[in-house]
Amino acid sequence: MTRRGWLLFLAMSVIWGIPYLLIRVAVRDFPPDVLVFARTAPPAVLLTAYAAYRGMLRPLLPHWRMVLLYSLVELAGPWLLLSHAEVRLSSSLAALLIATTPLVAAVLARLGGSERIDSRRLLGLTVGVAGVVTLAGVDVHADDMVAVGEALLTAVGYAVGPFIVARRLAHLPSLGVISSSLAVVAVLYAPFAVWHWPSSVSGDAAVSVVVLSVVCTAVAFIVFFALIAEAGPARASVITYVNPAVAVVLGVLLLDEPFTLGIAIGFPLVLLGSVLATAKPRREPAAGATGGSEALAAAPTGRAPEPS
Asked: What is the value of pTM for the model shown?
């Protein structure tokens, strides 16, 4: 990978590693539904305007149903669930639970018949599940299990979204898909934002929302697509494994979240399990780099896109 590629990779590792911390700070003042609106509206305006200027929206019109479905599965549902989960969970734990997204994707690929699960992938799924059990069993109180379930459902949404893109939207412009999806979510949550907008907001929460919407969403997608062009979707998707580590470090250093035994044991297991579960079967040739919305399908979403 080139020097520019490494710089883009490091930038994305940080940009998509900090949303968990920002969400944890923001939900102190913003209700989850308001937060979803606040983090989608500004980038929706910025990216949709640019996509319209580049003629990337018109090709989506015949496929509006699939775009709507992608918006709900990848952004509207997961971002609400994650925000609600982080009312109770630490940013570190939330990030590690979301790190199970590749495990879910591996299972979906097998159920969909697109990929087989060999012994290595099966071992990866087993190790990854063991990591989740360790995280939940050591670090989570009984009354937090609903929040854990919300985080895991977020991971399911992040895994399903790219399948929709790959199978139904891969021939469409990536930026057009994501910008229109952000616009859909912003419109969907606008009434809740009007109804539940907080009467007062702290400076930390306000800054968190601004950074979350502008840097972690609008700027993130531009940088991510540049990384795709520079290094290809396969290498770009490796940030999936780096983001949780960044989130843990930031949570411990900036929010004084404890580095627990569950994290020390569970995180390596989840990471190892994800790597093994998403490894290419030994007999299959490596796929080449692709463009268009296929790049979106290789992303960690909606983290891609985003994610968070």
From this structure: 0.85
**Three-class HEC string of the chain:** CCHHHHHHHHHHHHHCCCHHHHHHHHCCCCCHHHHHHHHHHHHHHHHHHHHHHCCCCHHHHHHHHHHHHHHHHHHHHHHHHHHHHCCCCCHHHHHHHHCCHHHHHHHHHHHCCCCCCCHHHHHHHHHHHHHHHHHHHHHCCHHHHHHHHHHHHHHHHHHHHHHHHHHHHCCCCHHHHHHHHHHHHHHHHHHHHHHHCCCCCCHHHHHHHHHHHHHHHHHHHHHHHHHHHHHCHHHHCCHHHHHHHHHHHHHHHHCCCCCCHHHHHHHHHHHHHHHHHCCCCCCCCCCCCCCCCHHHHCCCCCECCECC
Query: Which tokens go with 62?
Result: 């015949």
| Six-digit token string for 291 | 């463009």
Nearest to 148, CA basis, from 73, 191, 97: 97
Residue 165 in tokens:
């893109």
Query: What mean pLDDT is predicted for residues 141-145?
Result: 77
**pLDDT of residue 20 exceeding 60:** yes
Other Cβ atoms less than 10 A from the Cβ of 290: the count is: 16
Q: Evaluate whether 57 touches 176 at the Cβ level (below 8 Å).
A: yes
Non-local CB neighbours of 306 within 8 Å, separated by 6+ positions: 16, 19, 216, 217, 220, 300
Mean pLDDT along residues 175-179: 93
* Contact status, residue 215 vs residue 15, Cβ threshold 8 Å: yes
Amino acid identity at 287: A
Find the mean pLDDT for residues 175-196.
96
pLDDT for 223 equals 87
Q: Kindly give, in sequence order, each residue whose CB lies less than 8 Å from that of residue 43, ignoring residues fewer than 6 positions away.
A: 179, 182, 213, 214, 217, 218, 221
